[in-house]
Amino acid sequence: MRVGVLGPEGTFSQMAAEQYARRRHLNFQFFYFPDLARVMKALVQDQVELAIVPVENSQEGSLSTTLDFLLWQDGVQIQDEEVLAVRHWLWGKPGTRLDQISAVLSHHQALAQCQGWLNRRLPQAIKVLTTSTSEACAKVAKSEESLAAIAAPVAGAAYGLEALAEDLQDNKNNATRFLVLGKGSQSLRPQPGEKWKTSIAFGTPHEPGALYRALEPLARQGLNLCKIESRPAKRKLGEYIFLVDIEGCSLEPGPVSQGLIELMGRAAWVKMLGCYPAAPGGGEDE
After folding, report:
1. SS3 sequence, the chain?
2. FRET pair for 16, CA 20 to 30 Å: which of 9, 205, 220, 229?
């Protein structure tokens, strides 16, 4: 199966995809893309069959690129999800000392997740953004300067780098949730005892109580919301779209499908983003 991930080789996206493949007993052929937008564009253009992309981190929150793609791109659904425990290592050329490092390169999420460690241990180093953690390793390997990269424990060795420090992440429970995106309808069906999620987006009239009225049927059905957040509607300032993850499956008759029917009658519009199995460690009620 052709699967698109953020590249180059050694990113956390690839690690999440490999973990997912092992859990689901799948064989993947990886295609690497330089940024998330192009990973998801490759799915739309049928260059890959699945795109596995990060959507939220336990410390830094949601990735707007992924959320906006789900909101505005038709024909793509969340098919599954994977949660990856994220550990950050500091990589440099062999023999590099911490006091020699003038700059630290990485993806903006990795830099943010390690900012406390960086401020304590490398106050002299400037922070330089790259499109991925693996790209940071590649740039450090090619540079003549005393640079370092923050990347996964498996990433730096492939570029001839040495681990200068381990476990830089400020949150010891640091984890990132990845979505498995595909085209077409969900082929999986709930198994006994299996937990599922339903993800939707909707808009409401710009009037008092509109959000409450839209969500009230879900509360009445006894449904738990794993996540709720807003994104700009991109029409005018102060106008928002709401994204909600609901515990439960909307593919079969029951509280979720009934609650959504009522919500559709109260919201201005509703878009189904996907119904899929909840990943282990994905924040669903155990």
Report:
1. CEEEEECCCCCHHHHHHHHHHHHHCCCCEEEEECCHHHHHHHHHCCCCCEEEEEEEECCCEECHHHHHHHHHCCCEEEEEEEEEECCCEEEECCCCCHHHCCEEEECHHHHHHCHHHHHHHCCCCEEEECCCHHHHHHHHHHCCCCEEEEECCCCHHHHCCEEEECCCCCCCCCEEEEEEEEECCCCCCCCCCCCEEEEEEEECCCCCCHHHHHHHHHHHCCCCEEEEEEEECCCCCCCEEEEEEEECCCCCCCHHHHHHHHHHCCCCEEEEEEEEECCCCCCCCC
2. 229
